Amino acid sequence: MNLTFTKCCVCEIDDAEPIGVGADYEYRTGNDTFLAMQCNSCGLVYLNPRPEVSEFETIYPSDYHAFNFSEKDFGVVYKIRSSLEVKRLLSWCKDLPDNARILDVGCGDGFHLKLLREYGKKDWTLEGVDIDKRAVQAAENAGLKVYLGSVEKIDLPKDAYDLAFMIQTIEHLEKPYEILTAVKRILKPNGKLVIVTDNTDSIDFRFFKGGYWGGYHFPRHWNLFNQNSLAKLAEKVGFEIADLTTQISPVNWVYSIHNALVDWRAPRFFVNRFTLKSTVSLAAFTSLDSVLQKFGKGALLRAILRKL
Ligand SMILES: [Zn+2]
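Above: query sequence and zinc ion SMILES. Below: predicted holo structure tokens.
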């Protein structure tokens, strides 16, 4: 695999310590091992070196979950996740006008847009952007309006959107600063950007940061944040931070255990109890993470940013 060296996307320097090493335990797209580095200045965790952008189709195989998260394949997990996500999405939308324009950046197969189409106000304009043509195809097949490409390269109108989402997107990006700057440009004054991403100030990170942590998602997560590094990036772009908190998720707990079992060559039936399809382990770790979230240590970070 072709790799490239990088630096902290927040501080723009490479002054970091190795913190974790691991492989692609989930999709086995290659046999390479990868190194996670933590910036000594802001705490950002970043893959260095990371795959070249040209390796995109290798590291995102066609069975990648964000291309096809459907009720048919995920059954009850799809239903439960949908009902939780609808509540969250609508809570971020509650101040929006009836004719609001909403953009989902990194929309995948359109999971969030479909929920808003079903449960949101009927005059909202819903649009998505994704860099992967398979994701865009899946979203278009569902009847959604989706642009193929990266948000800074697509000719979207300035000062036009009331709300943008980046839900589990920023950690995949090559250039988070450039993307946030482009999103800020297309938002209306006072428009909001909601970012949800893995939290490196969580308990699951502390346990598994040596290599098995699900949030590393080797080699697909290139930049992983804590509250400090995310706030620093948002301020550098010129956003006001309206809220920065943590959010419950069982996924990184489940995948941390999954990854350890894979590396220890545990029997397949046992490994399969720790995936996105395993309701028992997802339910158990949702309970655990809901306790941790009360102490500000939930598995995900959530920022609500405002364009002044
Ligand atoms: Zn840094």
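The chain has a mean pLDDT of 94.
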